[in-house]
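Posting this for the archive.
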Amino acid sequence: MEINEYQYLAMVSANKNLSKEDMLSNGVMGLCGESGEVIDIVKKHLHHGHELDKKHIFEELGDVMWYIAELCTTLDFKLEDVMIANIEKLKKRYPEGFSKERSINR
């Protein structure tokens, strides 16, 4: 599957009755909520003695991706363009890969 195809297909299940502003708030709140679910799984693994539930993380990451696609759609961004811009930023910031020095002095 191509990246922008994912964005298009994900939005088939978006609520078409929401205004752009409501889609924006839904996207941000949903992204935070789903990210929080991933954090909770890792917290339970690290601090409560649970096995790391990778299957559950996998499912939650899909939900995170859905909300990212919703935000991109709402803001008229192509998901692929956001990803490309992020890689370009990282290449400039860490041209030889991550370094503590470049992280501190950027």
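The chain has a mean pLDDT of 97. Helices lie at 3-10, 20-47, 54-74, 79-93, 100-104.
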